[in-house]
Design goal:
This protein is an alpha+beta fold. It has three helices and seven strands. The longest helix is centred in the C-terminal third of the chain and has 30 residues. The two termini are 31 Å apart.
Length: 168
């Protein structure tokens, strides 16, 4: 599978899909319910010794990714609750940039060995369902703890102050 094949499949399923290049890395950007997400290539298949012809940029896997910017601290128990109750679509906090913290949801998809278009459409449907569930779930769960948040606390508090899509 190539990035272009993946783009065509996403568009064929009724989603916007554009190739975005960041430095030397190209990936797809799409959206569900107004929320941008990326499809990022994982491992590239290496041409087998003695194989005839080139197979440029063949992917063995890719990952669906959606990011939310977090202002303040995010309760880790919410991450654990999501991950315990949802088999697919893992949540984690990305703190690689000391000035920004992101809530990240990912879903890995392996295409090594070959997959059908129907299988890829099913993976896309799972992802779309997870994205549709995540935002209302976050609103509900954060709403439950909002009354316990002391607005005078600093960002080091163990409660959330604000969360928004990273593309906002």
């Amino acid at each position: 599978m190539t990035l272009e094949t993946l783009r065509a499949m996403i568009q064929g399923s009724g989603y916007r899909a554009e190739v975005v290049t960041d430095g030397n890395i190209s990936f797809l950007r799409s959206a569900s319910n107004g929320l941008d997400f990326d499809l990022r290539p994982g491992n590239v298949l290496v041409k087998e010794p003695g194989a005839v012809g080139e197979k440029p940029d063949r992917l063995a896997d890719f990952v669906f990714v959606v990011l939310f910017t977090v202002q303040g601290a995010f309760p880790v128990d919410l991450l654990n609750r999501w991950n315990q109750t949802h088999r697919f679509g893992r949540l984690f906090l990305d703190k690689t940039n000391p000035e920004r913290q992101f809530l990240v949801m990912t879903l890995d998809v392996s295409v090594a060995g070959g997959v059908t278009s129907a299988s890829l459409r099913h993976q896309l449907a799972i992802w779309d369902s997870l994205v549709q569930q995540l935002v209302p779930w976050l609103r509900e769960e954060l709403g439950k703890i909002a009354s316990t948040v002391d607005t005078q606390k600093t960002a080091s508090s163990d409660q959330v102050q604000q969360i928004q899509p990273a593309n906002a």
